[in-house]
């Protein structure tokens, strides 16, 4: 097979290696921590005059989920990415149920115990709604992200990796951010439409911009994993 033919076809590694397992674990942890952080509204600014950026406490974590999802989709294919989405979904639901049980358990009735209970309720109480918003956004966004990336790879093979990473990120992040913000806005205290648009716009722009800026890291990670997956070279 010529080098041109080799680059014209899509190749994937077998999703049974330690590399895939580690990425799957990190993906789940990042999403679960993002769900907790997202229950806190964050105001950055004012930047110009009275204008401030509205976001949430998970803003610095969640782009990592899409970067990991891109690596999994590019190296292991759509079935592996779908497995990652399902596993992360189940573990996030489990974490949310665990929070509910922890809050419901009877605690000490002294001042310190009551203060701890109130802090837990305030910190973890909104999480089920945040988890719903995050999971719906994550499932739709990551699925679209993976589908766009895999479809483009099927067409272009190993070529144009940066183009498919950018295209898949734009589609996936917009769907994810729209669904998440629509559900989570009221939980973190956003009640008017202009503030919601601020939250939606800057959430999408920030996440997409982070992934674009980190493309050199993402592509380097993809190439590193590809070189260390014998089944990828043999595909």
* Coarse shape: globular
Work out the radius of gyration: 20 Å
Specify the oligomeric state: single chain
The helix fraction, in percent, is: over 70%
Q: Catalogue the unreliable spans.
A: none
Counting DSSP E segments of at least 2 residues, the number of strands comes to 2
* Mean pLDDT score: 86
β-strand amount: 5-15%
Q: Termini, distance in Å? A: 12 Å
- The tally of helices reads 10
Q: Helix/strand-derived class?
A: mainly alpha
The largest sheet has its strands arranged as: 1-2
How would you spell out the order of helices and strands?
HHEEHHHHHHHH
Please outline the major beta sheet. Answer: 2 strands, antiparallel
